[in-house]
Here is the input.
Amino acid sequence: MPSRLPRPHLRSSPLLPQPQPPHPLLLAQQQVSPGVCHQQQQQQQQAHAQARRPPSAAGMSNGRPLSRDRGMLCKRPQPCTRVLHPAVIMDVALLTRSPKPVDEVPLDASGRPHPYILPPSFPGAYPTMAFVGPAAVAQASGLQPFMDFKLTVKYGGIANPPVKAAFREAGWRVTKGKRWVVCWGSIFTAAEFAGLHEFQRVNHFPGTWELGRKDNLYRNVAALKRTKGGGDVLSIVPRFFILPRDFDEFKADLDRHPGRLYIQKPVNSSRGRGVRVVVNPHEVPRDAKDILLQHYIDDPYTINGYKFDMRVYVAATCMDPLRVYIYCDGLARFATEAYSGEKADLKKRCMHLTNYTVNKKSTKLAQNQAAYGVATAAAEDAAGKDHAGGQAPTPPKGTKPASHLPYPPSPPPPFTSKWSLKELQAHIEAERGGPAWQSVWSQVHDIVVGAMLAAEPRLNTEVKMKVPHRNICFEVWGFDIMLDSSLRAWLIEVNTCPALNSDSPLDKHLKTSMVADLMNLVGPVPYDYDAYEMEGIARRQARLTGLAQQQPEGGASSARAKNQTAGGNAADTAPAPLPQKDGRVAGAGAGAVGKGGASSGGQGVGLCGPAQIPKTLQEAQEVVFHGLGPEQLPDIIVEAEAELARCRGWERAFPCLSAPTKYLDLFHTPRASNIMLCNYYAQKGASAAERSRMLRAPSARGRPCQGNWRPGGSG
Here is the structure.
C-alpha cells in the first residue's frame, strides 16, 4: 500500500488520516469526485480496505460511549455498501466530529440553540438526532449543529412539561402542521398511520390497549400461560376474575377461601378511580359489569410500616422484531398512612392504595424535594458530578447504613412519599443484601417481557395492518409492580399514558431524563420532507411506466447514487443469501425485500440490502452470522445494534443480552425476525468453543450468551 495518496484522493476520502477522522460509514454516502477515473477508484478502495481504520467516534460523548453498554460499540467499523434513502441528510461535514469543539454555542435568529446530529452508531445505520443534554454538552463532545433544516415536534393531547423540556433542550421546534419528525400525542387512526413517512416517529402503537386495559392485559397473560406454561416468567399477576364472565369462578374461589381479601377495579380506568378493597365479597352482585376482582396482596413488603409500589418505565421501539427496554430508574410511590390489615381499616384508601393521584390529596403527603434521589446523588458525588440533591436523613437507631451509599430517606412523614428506584435499591441492599435487589430486578425483567409477549400477537397484527414501516411507532408504558413480604414481584397494571407531570424536583429530573434518553434511543433520523415526497412520486411513476425494474431498488437512480459507496453500483447492493450451518444458504431463490418493507405496507420480516429472507423458520434458526461484516447483516440486526449503542439509561429486556434465547420459546407465534435477532446475539456472545458446538448442533436455540465475540470480527 502506498504511504501517501495523491492530494485529490486525500481530500475525497474520510478514511485516511485526518486531524479528526470522520465516521467510517461516510465512505458509503460520499459522491465520487468528478475527475477520478474508474481505475483510480478501484485503487483507492483497495487502499482504504487495507488501511488501519481508526476507532469510530459514533456513540461517544466526552470520550465515553453514549450507551451504558460500552462493549456494544463496533471495535473496528468497516465501510458499508448499504443503499440508504436519498432523503436522509448525509452531509459529511455534519457527521464528522469537531477535533477541537469551540466554546461558543451557535444560535438561530431567535437566540435558541440548534439541534445536534449523532453520526451512525453502527456501520450501515442512519445518523440520528442527539438527545444528550444541553447544547453546550453536545458541542463539547464534538457533535455538529444541524442548522440547514428545522426539526419539529408536534404535540397532540396532553404534552407534559418533561416532554416539552426534553425536546426544547435538544433544540427542536414545535409545529402544528404536517411537516413534523416526531409526534407526541394521542393514538393515531389507521388513516393517519397510512400517510406517514418512513422516518416520522409516533409515540403510540396501534393496539396499545392490549396492555393498557386491565381486562385485556390479564386475559392475554392468562392465555399465554395456558398455551406456553412459562413457569415464573408468566406467573406475574395475582389470581383475577373479570365480571360478569367469571362470576361463578369467583364464588367458587370465595367458598374455598372464606377469609380471602379481594380488590375491585374498573377494567378501563386510571389514577385509582373506582379502586377499593372489597369489605364484603359475598355482596358482589352477579350482574356487575366491566369489573375486575383480584386477590389482594395482604402481606406487602413495607418500609417503615408503609406500603408502596414501583413505577417502572418500559419502552418498545419495534414489534417485528420485538425490541423492549427498561429504564434504569423509576419511582417508588408510598401510601400516606401506615399499613394495617385489620378489617376496620380496609376502607382507608390512603393506606391501601399507592396511586399518587389518591395520596396527593392527603395532608400527610411529603414531596421529595431532591432533584436526584439521595442514593443517586451520593453515587454522582463519588464520580465528581454536580447535583441538586438534599441532605440524607439520619438512619434509625440501631441501624447501620450501607457502606457504599448513605441510608436513604424514610418514606412518609416526616420525610418523603416518593423515592427513586435507586433509593429503593439502596434500602433493600442495606436491609437484605445485594442479591435481594438483583432478584427483584430480574423478576421485573421477567414481568415486563412476559406482559409484552402476551400482548405481542395482537399488537403485531395491528402494526402490520395499519403502519407502513416497522420503525414508525415507539411507546413508553408505566408498569406498576408491587413486592410482597418475600420480595416476590407482582404486576398490578400497565399504564398506556403514564403520568409525566412534574410535581416535585425528583419527578422533573427523572422524567425529563427518561424522555430524553428515550428519544436518543428511538433515534429520529434527519431527513428532507420534500425530497422524501419527490422520491415517492418518482417510485410511483416508475411503477406506472414499467421502469421500476431498471431503477436501483427504492427510488430514483440519480438521488440514490449519492448514497452509494464510491465506485459502487446497483449490482453491488443486490440481496445475498445468508449462510447456513450445513453450508447451504438461506432463502436461495427468494426475492429481495425493500428497506423495511416500505413499498409493501411494512409486511413481512423487513430484511433488505445485503440479505434475503429465509424461506422457513428452520432456515432462520440456522443462519450463521460468524464471519459476516456489517455490510452483510440484515437491516433488523443493524437497527438493533445501532439502537443499543444509543440506549444511555435504557437497558434491553428483549432480546436479553445475557441469555438471548431465554424468552424465545414463549412467543405465541414464532417469527423469523425474532429468531434471527436472538440467534445473532447468541452467536455474537458465544466463545469459540461454544460457537463450534452451536454450529454442529441441530438448532442454535437455547444457548447462553458469554464471551466477547462479534460477528465479522476475528473471533
